[in-house]
Amino acid sequence: MLRYQILPVTPFQQNCSLVWCDATHKAALIDPGGEIDRLIAAAESRGLQLAQLWLTHAHIDHAGGAGELAERLGLPIVGPHPGDQFWIDGLPQQSAMFGFPPARAFVPTRWLADGDTVTLGEETLTVRHCPGHTPGHVVFHSAGAQRAFVGDVLFAGSIGRTDFPGGSHPQLIDSIVQRLWPMGDETVFIPGHGPESSFGRERRSNPYVQGT
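== Metallo-beta-lactamase domain-containing protein ==
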């Protein structure tokens, strides 16, 4: 069984997710944007072995802690899609601009593409490339758990911003309709900020994607 705990980090209250395989206690952090010691302590308190870092995209509040965590614990950085390399290269500037602790640029251990999979212990999740918020944004979907970790593509009652470099509103809507909705109305998604929701609820009530 795939399990997870949401850990809001940074002044932006970004939802870093600690995810793990219940059978093996192998764990990953999705979008470790900061507060590294707190994230490590959360894994240790559950007796989990951190094995990977997964990134949906490379904005500072999602990726700011990845380089240091990878070096400190010897962990691979998995994702995002290569379209976000320019955001990764700019992490030091992003951290200074927003008053975050110094963040380091890196090259992911493994880039991700649409249709790839990531494995954690006995659990496998499917990767969908969902550009629009950033060019290289990806989403992690567990069909068995009916959960999707969607970063800043979709929120409860809203959608991701598209006014950053490389953003595209039409592309974002297409990503939501073509990549997320087929996962099923019952699928619960964990957004990059704010509360969880379901795709069905957003299709019914989210003014930005209602009726799509």
